Amino acid sequence: MKFIQQKAYGADIVINEVLRYRKYQKRLGTRKLLHEMQGFLEAHNFQIGRDAMFNLLAERGMLITKRKRRGCITTLSKHRFKKHPNIIKGFIPIAPNQLWVSDITYIHLSDDFAYLSLITDAYSHKIVGFYLSEDLSAKGPLKALKMALTGNPDCKNLIHHSDRGVQYCCDEYVKLLQDNTIKISMTENGDPLENPLAERVNGILKSELLEEVFVDFKIAQQAIAVACSTYNHLRPHGSIDNLKPVEAHQITGELNKRWKNYYQINKQKRRR
What we know:
272 residues, 2 domains, 12% strand
């Protein structure tokens, strides 16, 4: 009986720590929770593996389920402006500010859509620029780009990669890139695989850090500012050696892709 009580007490302590992490990252997944909680678990002399954590969260109804994707078109590629070639095929950045990827994603309001422009550093995965707009004009991407340039003034040898939407091809946006000696790269078709990191960041924000629907535009604006800060400062990324983006943005050199190693190891285990 005493053992059962101790086990239940330990489970409650672990759950309380999970709730602490999920206060700001409500949909933080089990593997990332385990990584973040290692110091806590060691300090309390708890040994809990991935499967045990999954089972514990399942018992408490705390597993994260995937949201259904609903959306609208954000890429308007039929226009008169020049479409630049894709110059990043095979390119792997080894430092911050070598490659930025840009995209626009929709945000659900109670009776409409808003449009979130994001610019992400491809090395550190840090969101360096963002802006929520009420329409699909070039204003949103321009504001996001200006924010990125202000926060990262040293942009020598930088490439900016985006889709071929009119917002990124228009004269004002291209001029701002060229005025800052930034090379321009664009996708060749509508395949999301040509801009995978941008799509991934969209997905993380919307599936983990933002509500599905916001009451109004102002509330969405406030939530997005908090979500981008949480993403940059608190969320570890397996593809950048389990660092937070702000940490990775301070270093250089090849980063270990932990998620790749994790799936390779578990695939090998299943084969045995």
